[in-house]
Amino acid sequence: MFEELLKYDTELFLFLNNLGNTSWDGFWLFVTEKWSSIPIYVILLYLIYKNYGLRGTLVILVSVALMITATDQIASLFKYGVKRPRPCQVAELKAAMRFVADGCGRYGYFSAHAASSMAAAVFLGLSLQKWYKYLPFLLLIWAVATGYSRIYLGVHYPLDVVSGMAFGGLTGWLFYLLQKWGQKKFNN
Question: How many domains does the chain have?
Fold first, then answer.
């Protein structure tokens, strides 16, 4: 059954990866680049400061730093524990796929990009939803686009991305709860 799941995952990867074309490659390379999200983070930092003040912003920044560190480190543990090769490392797939990324690491389960972006989207969306009710949905679209970019570029299977998003969503929600506790503790 597990082998069947991996077979379907590979087929879905090839389908999604081959939807791309050279006119979109630059866009998806930009989306996947971690630095491309800096303008989004600057705007979110402004909104956080505007609504939480200095102390509340510091609590959120510490929570985000811990959350991103946790998602990144746990993703690395999974990658080197599971040792599932990235699609760009599988010789049988190279002729059938589009490889657009600048490089290709060894292992890919689960996607740290997908986990971190979904964790940030859930955490920040929940933290700001009181003032900006559509913001969580916009952040989720951004996180899904980041996850899809990993498939488009040829460095992750869909299961890597979906698992990373699920882990990131749960992590973002848990750190949101931690942040709420921190706001009560440090702002009273």
Answer: 1
